[in-house]
Amino acid sequence: MSFREKMLWVAFIAMMGGFGFYFLTLLTPLGENASPDYYLGLLFLIFGLVIGSMLVATLILFIRNRSEVTFKEDERDSDIHKAATQIAYYPLLLGVWASGAMFHNGVSTPTMLNILLAVLVGAESIRLGYQIFLYRKA
Amino acid sequence: MKKLPFNNEIKTLRFMSNEMTQGELGERVGVTRQTIAAIEQGKYSPSLEVAFRIAHIFGKPLEEVFIWEL
Lengths: 138, 70
Hints:
The complex is a heterodimer of chains A (138) and B (70).
Chain A: H1 3-27, H2 29-33, H3 36-64, H4 66-69, H5 75-104, H6 109-137
Helix pairs in contact in A: 1-3, 1-6, 5-6
Chain B: E1 6-8, H1 10-16, H2 22-29, H3 33-40, H4 48-58, H5 62-65, E2 66-68
Antiparallel strand pairs in B: 1-2
Helix pairs in contact in B: 2-3
């Protein structure tokens, strides 16, 4: 497995773990009745944990794969990157339009922001996941 | 997975070039070892530039490295 692929796994796991926990918490009775400040605090905590865990994992991978770190993205990496970005664009576009429609129908601002965050996290997870799939396939 | 319409002789040519590794070939071509492995296995279709670079390294014409099969 290449350094680039390992980095994708790290980002994918950190994102799914961190934001998965955040959105599951929101769906619990505690999350449903919590104030916007609670959401915000939890979100900052999750952001910190996701970024922190990615930094630590990157540092470990950097030390263990020094010979590959300097490799530039080649044409296959670039093709995989483009294909995954293209695939993730459509759920992002649909999600933003659907969020706009929900906002028009009276959804509260904190809920709206959480829906937009879910759309963004979903699209990014699809992008990362599809890149991993393409690397594994070939 | 869709099969590519051409085959290649990269593995044989590597072996005949002092058992050159995929990593060494990748380094000389300017791609990763994983990309060379994917090309060799027919899982990735390289650009014309990379195909020519590979052929040039082995000192062979392109059609002796990549063989059209349809």
